[in-house]
Structures are given as structure tokens and as C-alpha cells.
Amino acid sequence: MLYEQLPVPLIFVPYATDLALRAAAGHPRAELEIAAGTGAVTRELARALPTESDIVATDLNQAMIDHAAAIGTARPVQWRQADAMKLPFADETYDLVVCQFGVMFFADKPAALAETRRVLRPWGVLLFNVWDRIESNEFAHAVTAALDTLFPHDPPRFLARTPHGYHDREQIAADLVRAGFGGGASMNTVAARSLADSAWKPAMAYCQGTPLRNEIEARGSVSLEQATQHTAQAISRRFGAGPVDGAIQAHVVSVTK
Fold first, then answer.
1. pTM value?
2. What is the pLDDT of residue 182?
3. 38, 52, 70, 214 - which has most CB atoms within 10 Å?
4. In degrees rounded to 5, what are phi and psi of residue 24?
């Protein structure tokens, strides 16, 4: 799966480690992960949480869950297909709910956040992260700018619109209040580095390993391979012809029920 091969090591792994360490500090007895994807955070949670902690990892996409389960974890976890908008769990089941880079995709964010609150026990914690603005994430910004020049009349804006479209801290805090959490959310901005051995890898990761691919292919005027090559050349011009190193940045949010 291209998603696991390229985007996960390029941008997700540093934040998966960060979330798992934050999760372990609370010593949860029962933990739920939503929007687990191919299990980048799940694998880190399995290593970081105490062995007596139960871990349930879910995603809307069964293929993602199947791929994550096939990769495996350091200790057993329960894998389940589940819609974050309507979680199939009883009220007050979990001490901790974790979500890595999933909240941005929820159609109704306050409703989805309210679902996490429902399944949390009293004093349980919701822990999640979201990408900061695209300008603070250099490869994503470079890819978007390159595609703007390739499709000047109808540029594919998936990266700016969705993964990097939910970065406003005041909006996040307001959505948490609407979800019933009240005030008091902790928000930390965490910077990291995205490393690859060539410009081709971030170009492939974003153009072919994310839903940006669908927007490129839908336009039809330029092939996916041509678009990928164009963005690789743009990244190479900016970051160099050899190994590339770009800034990435995200907000980490923690709130107690």
C-alpha cells in the first residue's frame, strides 16, 4: 500500500511517537484509537502503553484495518471497522481516545468530537493532532504551489483544503466546547522534520499516496505521472537534487472530559 510505504514514514511517524508518549503518561486502562489508518500510532501505542492497557484501534476503511493488522503490533490489539461519527461502543467505556490526523476529515467535527466524549469515562482524555497551516509544512506547500502552475485554471487544492484546513486554534477550541468538553483544552504546536532520500519520494507520497491523486486524475489534462514529475522537479529546485529535508508542523490537542 503506497500510503504505508511513503506518507507514513515521511510525515506521520514522528507524530505517532509523540502521541504515544503523551498517551502513556496518563496510564490508561482502556484506550480507543479512531481513524487509525494503517496503524502508525497503533504500533507506537502497543510499545508505549503498559501491557495491562487494552487497545482498540478502529478506522472507517476496512482495507486500512486489514493492512494494519497484517503489519502487526508488538502485542495484541483489537482491530475494528468503525465510523467515528457513530462509534459502536457503550457510553463511558474508555479512559483515553486517540486520533492522529483524522479530525480534519470529519464532515461534522463537533458531532464527531461529541462521540469521543460520549465513550470517555469521567475524567477521560481525548488526545489528537491536526496539521498546522500548509505554509508551515514545506513539502505539502511546495507540491500545492507546483500544481497551481500546472493547473492554473482549476488547481487541485486538497492538501490546503483538508489536511491543512483545520489549523485555527480558536476554531478547534470552539468545536470542543460545542462537543460538550467545555474549556481547558491544552494545545501544543510541535515542529518536526520530513526526510527523504530524493525529491521523488515526497512528490510520490503526496501526488499518488493521498486523495490528492483523485483530484489530479479528475482533471484529465495532465497525467498523474506528469504531475508527479512536475512536483518532484519543483521540490528538487527548492530543496536540492539529493536527499531532501523539509519542515513539518502540527498542533497536538488534549482535553479532559
1. 0.95
2. 85
3. 38
4. -65, -30
